[in-house]
């Protein structure tokens, strides 16, 4: 097995070996290279202690000396170099009480999570695969190194990582590993919200975001996203739907690009349906007001998972408008684009497309035609650079003051009224026309 190492990685490994130490590329970069994928980063493991590593390289960053990690700056690249180590007893389902450095590669590899992540490589020794990682890659299996209950007991986040790797690689979780994940899923409560959010996002951004269902089947979502379990229990007896709310949500994830905002929007867009569900005398389910209810639930969930304010804002805006079926008329489209920005409006069309594709065939053709027509209108508005906000309005506050308006709330009131006029008819975005409008407005107040 020959892996082409990047020049910077080879330089670090060669430098360590030249000083008499062992050094290997290790973990995900080895796995991805074997699979023909481009690694996101290259980690290196070595028999050298952190202080020995620091003596060899001129430019280093003390990333985590306590746990044996030094970042080596090699040209324009930065690589984490970690000393072979043996982890002590784990006390919080995440961190070992202590770390013991070792000169033995086998000891280091056997503490790792999954066999496919426990392989090491350098050009001298070739592939070091002590736990059947290559065989599991060929069989497309996610399997823990050694006893899965021990591995998950050491670090509960590995339970969610098993599902994430399964989704990213299209692999199945091996039987005993899956059973251990189900048994120990409740221990995920001890993992920080930030780390849960990172793993969920990686899962959602994979080629198989619908594999979130595996997290539901194994009891993971009951702990980290219990609101999703309610979706899986909520039927949709309605001509527009062929799935329950949860299955519809999973299906919709496949129809938006792998974008964090879009995938989280689709995951949360129908969160309001369980509490808004009513059934009429004909047995048909209705979900009036689920968009508004969903906004509040989505905000609560995203805040709980410690998402940044910008992501929370964008996702909740898209959820608020996801069920708005505007006509393909410029005036109507301009008004909404003005309220949510052109960027989010284009994403809104992606959301509505995915929503329609995950429904039944009932009126699907008409739904998709409407969405495409609206999208074309919105792009025409952008191409023509039509005014959608106060920044592009050809009337400014100073203009109003020169016309006799007193500085204060009235200036903003007139500017908003002028913008509404321009949204109604773009040709009115002319300085003279707007000044005349403003004069008339001032005369009435």
- Note the total helix count: 23
Q: Strand portion, in percent?
A: 5-15%
Unreliable spans: none
Secondary-structure content class: alpha+beta
Reported for the largest beta sheet, the result is: 7 strands, mixed
Give the N-terminus to C-terminus distance in angstroms.
82 Å
Numbering strands along the chain, what is their spatial order in the largest sheet? 3-4-5-2-1-8-9
How many E strands? 13
Mean pLDDT: 96
Radius of gyration: 28 Å
Q: Fraction of residues in helices?
A: 40-55%
Globally, the shape reads globular
GO molecular function: CCA tRNA nucleotidyltransferase activity; metal ion binding; nucleotide binding; tRNA binding
Family: Belongs to the tRNA nucleotidyltransferase/poly(A) polymerase family.
EC number: 2.7.7.72
Protein name: CCA tRNA nucleotidyltransferase
């Amino acid at each position: 097995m020959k892996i082409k190492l990047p020049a910077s990685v080879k330089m670090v490994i060669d430098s360590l070996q030249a000083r008499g130490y062992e050094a290997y590329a290790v973990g995900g970069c080895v796995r991805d290279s074997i699979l023909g994928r481009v690694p996101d980063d290259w980690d290196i493991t070595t028999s050298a202690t952190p202080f020995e590593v620091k003596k060899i390289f001129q430019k280093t960053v003390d990333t985590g000396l306590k746990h044996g990690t030094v970042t080596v700056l090699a040209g324009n690249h930065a690589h984490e170099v970690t000393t072979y180590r043996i982890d002590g007893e784990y006390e919080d389902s995440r961190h070992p009480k202590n770390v013991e450095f070792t000169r033995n590669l086998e000891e280091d590899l056997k503490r790792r999570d999954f066999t496919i992540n426990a392989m090491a490589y350098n050009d001298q020794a070739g592939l070091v695969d002590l736990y059947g990682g290559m065989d599991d890659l060929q069989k497309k299996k996610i399997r823990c190194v050694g006893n899965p209950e021990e591995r998950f007991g050491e670090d509960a986040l590995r339970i969610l990582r098993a599902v994430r790797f399964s989704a990213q690689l299209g692999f199945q979780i091996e039987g005993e590993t899956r059973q251990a994940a189900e048994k120990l899923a409740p221990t995920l409560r001890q993992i920080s919200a930030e780390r849960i959010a990172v793993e969920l996002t990686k899962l959602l951004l994979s080629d198989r975001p619908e594999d979130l269902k595996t997290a539901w089947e194994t009891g993971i979502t009951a702990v980290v996203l219990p609101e999703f379990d309610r979706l899986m229990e909520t039927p949709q007896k309605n001509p527009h739907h062929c799935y329950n709310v949860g299955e519809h949500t999973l299906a919709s994830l496949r129809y938006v690009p792998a974008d964090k905002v879009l995938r989280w929007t689709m995951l949360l867009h129908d969160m309001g349906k369980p509490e808004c569900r009513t059934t009429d005398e004909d047995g048909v389910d209705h979900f009036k007001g689920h968009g508004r209810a969903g906004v509040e639930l989505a905000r609560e969930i995203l805040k709980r998972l410690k998402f940044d304010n910008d992501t929370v804002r964008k996702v909740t805006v898209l959820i608020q408008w996801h069920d708005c079926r505007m006509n393909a008329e410029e005036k109507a489209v301009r008004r909404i684009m003005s309220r949510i920005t052109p960027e989010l409006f284009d994403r809104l069309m992606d959301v509505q497309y995915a929503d329609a594709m995950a429904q039944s065939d009932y009126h699907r053709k008409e739904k998709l035609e409407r969405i495409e027509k609206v999208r074309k209108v919105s792009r025409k508005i952008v191409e023509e650079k039509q005014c959608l906000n106060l920044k592009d309005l050809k009337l400014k506050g100073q203009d109003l003051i020169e016309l006799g308006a007193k500085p204060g709330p009235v200036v903003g009131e007139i500017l908003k009224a002028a913008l509404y006029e321009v949204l109604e008819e773009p040709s009115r975005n002319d300085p003279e026309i707007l000044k005349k409008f403003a004069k008339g407005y001032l005369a009435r107040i």
